[in-house]
Amino acid sequence: MAASNTSDAAEAYDNLVAQYEDIVHLDQIDNILFWDQQVMMPADGTPARSGQRSTLSSLRHELLTSDEIGTALSSLSGASLSDDQTAVVREIRRQYEREAEVPRELQRRLSQAISDSTPVWQAARRNNDFESFAPMLAEIVEIRQEQAAEIDPDAEPFDVIFAEYEPYLSVETVESMLHELRDELVPLIEEIRESDVDPAAGVFDGTYDADAQFALSEEVLDIVLVDWEKTKLDTSTHPFSFGNQFDVRMTTRFDEETPVDGLTSTLHEFGHTDYTQGLPTDAYGTPLGEPRSHGIHESQSRFWENQVGRTEAFWELIQPLLIKHFPNLDGTSSRDLYAAANQVYEENYIRVEADELTYHMHILLRFEIERDLINGDLAIEDVPARWNELMDELLGITPPTDTLGCLQDIHWSLGRIGTFQNYSVGSVFAAQLQAALESDLGDLESLIAEESFEAIHQWLTDAVHQYGQRYTTDELIEVATGEPLTASYFVSDMRSKYSDIYEL
To answer: 171-501, what's its fold?
Structure first.
């Protein structure tokens, strides 16, 4: 009897994994279509692309909520499984139970709205025209509210949407962390603004050709050991990295007046790429071959952007490349380059161009707006005014245009409401990872100076990448660092670093 049960469980598990692999394939196809839409597709291709992606979304929903998956999950309830198998079943069950509550037509409407809204957002951002984007945003918010009501009508709608991207950290935990960052960082930002030190004075004056910046980014990616056999680099309106262990499409963007932003953007997306390519190849098509969560993904991108890319050792390492591509920087010390790259801006409107400190006030602003939108406490037409109000409250500045304000991010046009807080989760965890890495390997600055990037890659793979979704988020943080998520390392690092740069 036991053997028969074991055999039945094994068959049910194999059927479940086979069904899920098809879902992963659909996700990957949709990623390629999105990449093409942002990078290659002709401007007038949206109507066809919207239909294509909507069909994929509908097929995905149908597969994920199919009787085959439901039957397999039922058969595996209480079955004796290995730890890896238990994790696979847990993650597929979580997705199945959420998706099964949402009507197929609602999923199709969301996919259609996302495809339709992206070019509208692009034009609205370009033309400083929130009014033209507002109807698309209203539709997406309405669909997300309907989804939340279908999944859990008794919960706050934002809490339900939040769990889609970070299912194992509570809204209360993350909100408390954001408020801790506000309480700790705002006084530090004020101290810096009162300082007489200007670390960026004259360092990056002038213009920096975008093609030269692209070439610089490619060479920097060589240094940090990007795998070009599995990576394609392009530019897009908003940088992203999508793909799998075998094929990652990565984009960045450049401003000819601020070369630091293009380089840090490239490193940020490389962090996503490194995580994706560090996932176990033999688990592709299962949750064990997929990243844990949005917050964990952001920890990897913020690690490479900040823990590596904003260090003095890194700027000393790449100084010859900077001079090669931009001879006007010849004679500028690596210390000055480093300090200028870590400038805390007086007027800092754009999140992806923000320094390490003010960045988190951008996140808190978006967290509060998204929560109020989804919970029905903020009207669409009031978004620009609320955005400007919070910018003034948190950073003491008011965007002169909506292009520099509420239209700057692509996320809302992609339906990704309830994700921004995970950038701060990622930053906090990245600092925690650095402390754990240094406990094992020694000082990170020394590792960078020695170009020991293979060792850094391997440590991150061993600590985070290799597990895919085997652990829940809180479990993975403890497995990687030996302690629960804490902002203490990040706050301490920021105080130490910026006290040095600004002579506080």
So the answer is: Neurolysin; domain 3 (1.10.1370)
Total residues belonging to the chain: 504
For residue 122, the surrounding DSSP H or E stretch is helix 104-127
Q: β-pairing, 247-252 with 231-235?
A: parallel
What is the rounded CA–CA span in Å between residue 450 and residue 444? 10
Output the pTM of the full model: 0.92
Angle at 83 between CA 79 and CA 89, to 5 degrees: 55
Q: Where are the domains of the chain?
A: 2-154, 171-501
| Per-residue model confidence as pLDDT tens digits over 353-385 | 889 999 999 999 999 999 999 999 999 999 999
Output the pLDDT for position 348. 86
Structure tokens at 126: 């370009």
- Cα distance between residue 376 and residue 146, in whole Å: 12
Active-site entry in 269, 290, 305, 370: 269
Taking only the tens place, the pLDDT of each residue in 195-245 is 999 998 999 999 999 999 999 999 999 999 999 999 999 999 889 999 999
The DSSP result for 436-467, as a single string, is: HHHHHH--HHHHHHTT-HHHHHHHHHHHTGGG
**Distances, alpha carbon 412 to alpha carbons 73, 113, 418, 448, 479, in Å:** 33, 11, 9, 36, 33
| More confident call, 116 vs 274 | 274
Please confirm, yes or no, whether 353 is among the known catalytic residues.
Answer: no
If residue 60 lies in a helix (H) or strand (E), which one and from where to where? Answer: helix 46-64
Using the Cα atoms of residue 342, residue 348, residue 353 and residue 355 in order, give the sign of their dihedral: positive
Percent residues over pLDDT 70 in the chain? 99
Contact partners, residue 143, CB within 8 Å, separation at least 6: 106, 109, 110, 113, 415
Q: How confident is the model at residue 478 (pLDDT cuts 50, 70, 90)?
A: very high
Buried b (16+ CB within 10 A) or exposed e, 144-169: bbbbbeebeeeeebbbbbbbbbbbbb
CA dist., res. 460 & res. 227, Å (int): 16
pLDDT digits (tens, 9 = 90+) for 427-458: 999 999 999 999 999 999 999 999 999 999 99
Measure the CA–CA gap between 52 and 65, rounded to whole angstroms: 20
**Distance (Å, whole) CA 210 – CA 212:** 5
Among candidates 351, 35, 326, 64, which has minimal Cα distance to 207?
Answer: 326
